[in-house]
Amino acid sequence: MSKIVISTFVTLDGVMEDPGGSEGFQHGGWQLPFFDQDLGTGVLEELFAADALLLGRVTYQHFAAAWPSLTDEEGFADRMNSLPKFVASTTLQEPLAWNAILLKGDVAEAVAELKRQPGQSILVQGSSELAQTLMRHSLIDEYRLWVHPVVVGSGKRPFHDGIPPTTLRLVGTQVTSTGVVRLTYQPAQQAEGSAPTSSSHHGCLGRPPPRAPQFVPHRREKRGPILVRPRSYGRLARRALQRRRVAHIDLPGYGPWVSSIAGRMFWLSRNRFVGS
User: Fold this and answer.
1) CA-atom Rg of the chain in angstroms
2) In DSSP terms, which residues pair with 124 in a beta bridge?
3) What is the pLDDT of residue 15?
4) How confident is the model at residue 27, as a pLDDT?
5) Following DSSP, what letter does each residue of the chain receive, concatenated?
6) How far apart are CA 10 and CA 22, in angstroms?
7) Quick one: CA torsion of 225, 228, 230, 233, rounded to 10 degrees?
8) Distance (Å, whole) CA 58 – CA 125
């Protein structure tokens, strides 16, 4: 049985449209500055692990116009061109170019039938509208979001209004040298009992991600409120305020107005505990 895997490049504000800059989108090409060896290796591994591509009409037409004429030393283009493709469209007609097969009838039923076939995974790239259909019918087994550290403000997003609420579980992460983070999610019920892979917290080349700065809380003995007894109000108040080690002093047994800093200062000054 095959699984459906969605893999898409997204910006930090969730835009997936035109990452390569070839579709005429005003913010197109936002992905290009972040492409590095880590990202290339991760995408290559993803492609070679797939048995087929599942594409919507628009993505298929863009890919079919570009990839047949491309070559590279790593074999990425050869793999893209040789993989079988399944295309979801109500306007295209067979025969399709680029080793592609048109899904006939209801898309959800056709994809469910593909999942029942033996194999590893069927990879969905781009194809925003197709992804919405698959989400509505709970046909996606894994989400891989390549989150890029850039905000573009507008554009198509992978999750539209109207899709049913879906709880996901993070099962893996990868970080590239340019700050792109691949987040791998599975539906919570499906992922229950599974553990993140051994490479889930490392980059595509095995490097650990940058360590986040450690949060060190303020020492309460220096800056937190202190409680003083009536006999020592004057001495402790003067010492604490002169050394600037506390933000305020708690005075037990008095009304709410004493809880403000101004109230405390006024109360202390009237009772000759400050400046006496």
Assistant:
1) 29
2) 6, 54
3) 96
4) 95
5) --EEEEEEEEETT---S-TTS-S--TTTTTTGGG--HHHHHHHHHHHHT-SEEEEEHHHHHHHHHHGGG---TTSHHHHHHHS-EEEE-SS--SSPSSSEEE--S-HHHHHHHHHTSSSSEEEEES-HHHHHHHHHTT---EEEEEEES---S-S--SS-TTPPP--EEEEEEEE-TTS-EEEEEEEHHHHTT----TTTBS-TTSPPPPPPPPP-PPPHHHHS-EE--GGGHHHHHHHHHHHT--S-EE-TTS-GGGGSHHHHHHHHHHTT-S--
6) 16
7) -80
8) 11
pLDDT in tens, 141-199: 999 999 999 999 999 999 988 888 999 999 999 999 999 999 999 999 876 655 555 44
CA dist., res. 75 & res. 30, Å (int): 25
Where in the chain is CATH 3.40.430.10? Answer: 3-191
Q: Which CATH number fits domain 3-191: 3.40.630.30, 3.40.430.10, 1.10.3470.10, 3.30.2000.30?
A: 3.40.430.10
Per mean pLDDT, which range of 13-17, 151-155, 256-260 is the poorest?
256-260
**Whole-number Cα distances in Å, 58 to 97, 151, 161, 171, 229:** 14, 24, 20, 30, 76
Contact criterion met (CB below 8 Å) for 242 and 273? no
Tokens 């797939």, located at residue: 50
**Given the structure tokens 């047949």, which residue do they identify?**
68
